[in-house]
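Q: Give me the 3D complex with glutamic acid.
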Amino acid sequence: MELNLSQADSFSTGKRVCGAVREGVAAVIGPRAPASTGIVQSICETMEVPNLQIYPEVQQHPGCCVISLYPAQESVAQAIADVVRNFLHWSAFTVLYESDEGLLRLQEVLKAHGLEDRKIIVRQFVPGKDQRKLLKEINASNETRILLDCATDRVLDVLQQARDVKLISVYHSYFITSLDTHTLDLSEFEPGQTNFTLLQIVNPEDMNVELTVNYWTDKYYYYHRRSLGVTAETVRTETALMHDAVFLFARALHRCYFDVNQSFSVESLECDDRHKWIYGLPLANYMKISEMDGMTGKIRFDDSGRRTRFKLYVVQYFTGEFRKVGWWETGHGVNRTQSETEKEAEIQKSLQSKKLIVASRIGEPFLTEVEPRGELQGNERYAGYSVDLMGKIAEIVGFQLEFRLVESNKHADLVNNLIARTADLAICDLTITHEREKLIDFTMPFMNLGISILYGKPVKEDASLFAFLDPFSVDVWIYVATAYLGVSILLFVLARTSPGEWDNPHPCRSDPEELENTFNLMNCLWFSIGSLMGQGSDILPKAVSTRMVAGMWWFFTLIMIASYTANLAAFLTLNRLEGEISSAEDLAKQHKVKYGTMAGGSTAGFFKNSNDSTYKRMWTTMSQSVPSVFVNSNEDGVQRVQKANGKYAFFMESTSIEYQVERKCDLQQVGGTLDSKGYGIGLPVNSPYRTKVNGALLKLQENGVLQELKEKWWKAPANESCSAKDASELDEDSNKLGLANVGGVFVVLIAGTLTAFLFAVLELLWNCRKIAVQEKISPCEALTSEMKFALNCSNENKPVRRRKEEEEEEEEEEDAMPAGVTAGSFARIGFEKFRDKE
Ligand code: GLU
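A: Here is the predicted complex, encoded as structure tokens.
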């Protein structure tokens, strides 16, 4: 006998059960209404009539004759907890439940959630009311995983309202605890969007279930001429359990009859006289110990008649059909039957019909607008590394995409788009950071980089004309000149005081009247300069003291010349391009060069959150700088460095620096990188596309496509490439000294020669004046005759010029003297001349 007492109160239920028992029953199956369970159970226990229950038990009353086929609540609660933790791997989620009974089912989930786990939100909704406000709040909390516990017939209503508040999308997942969810039509929730997970007790792939259902539907059709409307897939738990209960009881009767050879008969029993049915207890006990395969799997009971060691099947609805993906069994926990490949194949299938929205921002070389603007449509409007990369990924994974620019062109806006799930992917120079990882998901990095310094190149100094002076500092040159003068004067003084330096001017005369000293001041200066220039001189000291001075001077010049020569080559070939700033530490130490970053970017975040004392200090300096050192974009930063003339350095990511310095030859990267990170493609949290996109990226990396794309977009054309220009300049310049490098030496030579020429003119004029006085002729005549002689190159000997009186005297003497005396007069004149000179 089945009792359909869903509407009845306990009193009328009791009356009906007593009435039935009076007629004579062998077992009671039911009731359906939880409120009546107690009274039915109590009457059956009293009269020892087996009571087979097929609905969730409300209270636990272990008794002699109650047999519950519905899985025990605590076991279902454990199954739900296991699926959440070990199958879905949810660490944060929202629990949405309807009744306190539901909360009992969810107790294990709540207990399993540790203190250190991410927060879970638990919300109760009032059945039959508008749930949109509550659902909106859940949506605002950015929760994408919802554990829904409510009656089967309310599931669709809740889901429809959830759809209204945009809580149904590809990023949302639902776990519905009702064991009959598989009987619902979920097709209205756009297959391939939301993932619904559910549990069911009827094995959806069991052939016996199918056969049984077919058998009963055929029978039903035979008697009623219409379809039962049930298939193996849609058979309700209640139906299956009813079938199993009847079979269990029939089997028990059958076995008792044959095995124990016991014939049964029902008796009329009165509720009032507490009379017991004698066959009830043996039958109930037999059912408790027996095992049977039913539509709900293996049927086994514990001593108190509660169903134990049963299996629940984990089913998912994603691409338009319910698919068994795993199972749970008492004592075994949850197991996955769907392989990763099958899962991926499902996602792949759902992707094929999809157009994913790719959020991006304008920024070279990742994305630029193609000219002429406004005339092109769709993705044709954009070009850049991001477009190429996304194109390749879409090709591998097999989806269509649409690029959409974020309004503010800021990185933060891209992240916000992903959080709001208005975009499926976000690509640009989006750095993977810890902060962002809390809000969105990232693929593996497609490019590696670090923070570095963008700074202006120091202006190439023109080679100095007097670069030959560079090997020694001005001080050293002054000391050398002072030493030269000092040594020359010392030599002069010592030579005058040393007897050894005083010589006989006429070695032929053994008894000279006077001695002469070669080291007059001019000769001392000549001697010292000769040594300093490495040429030596024709006069040398003889006295010990002067030789000592000369020796020391030679030693000094030896070292100085060697040092000068060693340094000269390096100084003449060196391009003085090193600036004052060569690292972040250099920047931190000074106040002349301002430095900044892009506002709100990961670089600013690096300094802000750094624990390093230098970077912390730099962040304080940057944030206190007036006017602000922060810029809105990398492009602004680059322009500021270019305009600042060495007064501003910009912290930028090495990849962007690489791109800029390849094209802007007045810029350079200074120092290495301060950290190491990567750019990734952003996705909303729990995006189902992440694995697919990751796989495609890995493939592109292995094939060298990522490298090819980098080269394509980073390398400038040869005529614009600064690195190519630098290389060719280096080739031309290498080891060659230009006139600019050694021009000063020519200047010195020319200046020296001109000075010498000036002295020559002065000497000539002085000599002409002397001749004019001696010969009593005009200076002009003397000059003319001297010039004539000098210009007449055939004259190799110059006659000695004598004074007029001397000539007349000579003529007189010549007249008076024989011819042979002429030689003696020459000798005298020669001697006179020599004396004059002295
Ligand atoms: N790539 C950075 C980001 O994702 C922006 C540039 C920067 O901060 O240097 O925030």
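A quick observation: The first helix runs from residue 10 to 23.
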